[in-house]
Amino acid sequence: MKILILDKNHPFIVYKLKKEGFICDENYNDSIDNINISAYDGVILRSRLKIDKKFIEKAINLKFIARIGSGIENIDKNYAIKKGITLISSPEGNKDAVAEHAIGMLLCMMNYIIHSHIQITKGKWSREANRGTEIMGKTIGIIGYGNTGKAFAKKLSGFDAKILCYDILSEIGDIYAKQVNMNTIFQKSDIISLHVPYTKKTEGIINYNFIKKFSKPFYLINTSRGKCVITSHLAKALKNGKICGACLDVLEYENFSFDNISIHRKFTKSFLDLIHSNKVIFTPHIAGWTKESKSKMDKKIVEKIIFFEKKLNQI
């Protein structure tokens, strides 16, 4: 098989694939229009480029598209499948990194860790105003119970909290989280953590109509995709107390490749409201961005490509 690699990754990928007999070419600079894809059996990428219908039509020999990471929203999934192209991703590789990061943000939020640190650096020693809230005894609702949702629940199991999960798939709850319907999530949750892929159905899923269905104020964690949360609606809910605090690793304003944010003028006020709130913690889309996850995702994608090639040869 001849493979084109479109994003810089761990050198293990090229080394291992070549060792297994694959031919690997690398192109880290050209735009999608300047890439001759017709000669390749497979493509490996992250987020630099968008694999659209036009690109797929040129890929007359393409058998698979592999994205290193958990989402495949930069690939025209439906058209690729229609053309008989297999989609490969590696969500298993960064699930633990995302889970740890989500817990870290939650602990910082509920215990005023960042807020009080900043106060001390400015010479202010304030104890009572920074009295924290424990995770123990709370009910945590996980929306989306795939790789990262499951890892998050497992790592929370030592906190003596009640963990619920909701997913569009049935019977995927486990010993770490009880699967329930959304009405139960609305009624019981003190903390909500979002672990859904970005699709047309999940775009804007956290909106004000959704938020006001909760029986009590809750903390929100979003480590999935920024556009799953409508920023202006979140800002409103923080102001009126429907949401106690928000831990945001991803933002609605991220650009296509997640390497920066671009804030349109009409969104500026809502974003500034979040920036100036002591109820919000931000990180720049780094929840799954650890040294260990980089290596694990690369290894997982290589394993899947090798398995796919062997399976193809058996047909």
Question: Which key features would you list for this structure?
Answer:
Rossmann fold, 315 residues, seven-stranded parallel beta sheet
Notes on the structure:
α4 packs across α6 (147-156). This protein has two domains: 2-90 and 292-314, 3-Layer(aba) Sandwich (Rossmann fold), CATH 3.40.50.720; 95-282, NAD(P)-binding Rossmann-like Domain (Rossmann fold). α9 links the parallel β10 (218-222) and β11. The two termini are 15 Å apart. It has helices at 12-19, 53-58, 77-82, 95-110, 113-121, 147-156, 182-188, 208-211, 231-240, 268-275, 291-314, and strands at residues 2-5, 23-26, 42-45, 64-67, 86-89, 139-143, 162-166, 178-179, 191-194, 218-222, 243-248, 280-282. Strands 8-7-6-9-10-11-12 form a seven-stranded parallel sheet, with helices on both faces. The chain has 315 residues and is an alpha/beta fold.
Show the helix and strand layout.
Elements (H helix, E strand, L loop, with lengths): L1 E4 L6 H8 L3 E4 L15 E4 L7 H6 L5 E4 L9 H6 L3 E4 L5 H16 L2 H9 L17 E5 L3 H10 L5 E5 L11 E2 L2 H7 L2 E4 L13 H4 L6 E5 L8 H10 L2 E6 L19 H8 L4 E3 L8 H24 L1
Parallel strand pairs: 1-2, 1-3, 3-4, 4-5, 6-7, 6-9, 7-8, 9-10, 10-11, 11-12
Helix pairs in contact: 1-11, 4-6, 9-10
